Amino acid sequence: MIDRFHVQQLATEALQEIRIKYRWEAIEAEYQALEAAKLSKATYHPPVLSNGDTLKQLLARSRYLLYKQEANWTAEQTERAQLLFEKYPTLRKAYDLAQKLSWIFQDNRDKLYGFARLARWNEQAEQSGFKSFNTISRTIINHHKNILNYFDNKSTNASAESFNAKIKAFRAQYRGVGNVNFFPFRLANFMLSPQVLIQIRWVSL
């Protein structure tokens, strides 16, 4: 099974990539305007939006609101999002696309219905014209069988990743593995300790 959160993370990273691209463009435009003002011996003041942000600040401060659902935005984030999407409609389109992928996993419990909705999402991603989302679409197509296994009982890889993190921490505690053959024996004794068993049981719940 491929964890749903890894799939959603790809969509979030694609969305943030678009925001960062626009931010670099805003930084470059502000730099050029500043240089032009210096040549004309004038004082440059960047345009300020209605919420007090410059365009560069708007794009930087919108980072966290793009991770959240619209219903969970604060009043300040709602105002900032309205300005952001007004200035950059493509960001609104990319945000909606990322949210739709999240809703597929949240609202659906049927594997076949999930498959149909993922196929529809792939079609929308391909039509969007966003290169990063096209990459996600191809990833879903190539690994859809493992992704769809999530809908069997809505399990995640959290317990497996927690177990793997404990193994890595144990290995780091002893500065790596000097004796490969002895390491599994030492690891088994560590994992069977009462404290670790309690933690594993808690994670599985």
Describe the structure concisely.
By secondary structure, this protein is mostly helical. Helix content is 74%, strand content 0%.
Overview of the structural elements:
The chain is an all-alpha fold. The protein folds into 2 domains: 4-153, no CATH class; 158-204, no CATH class. The protein has helices at 4-39, 55-61, 75-87, 89-107, 111-128, 131-148, 150-153, 158-173, 183-191, 194-204. It is extended, with a radius of gyration of 23 Å. The protein starts with a helix and ends with a helix. The model is unreliable at 197-205 (pLDDT under 50).
Q: How much helix is in the residues?
A: over 70%
- What gyration radius follows from the Cα positions, in whole Å? 23 Å
% residues in beta strands = under 5%
Report mean pLDDT, rounded to a whole number: 81
Coarse shape: extended
SS class = mainly alpha
> Helical element count?
10
Uncertain segments of ≥5 residues (pLDDT<50)?
197-205
Characteristics:
205 residues, mainly alpha, 2 domains, 10 helices, 74% helix
List the helices and strands and how they pair.
Blueprint lengths: L3 H36 L15 H7 L13 H13 L1 H19 L3 H18 L2 H18 L1 H4 L4 H16 L9 H9 L2 H11 L1
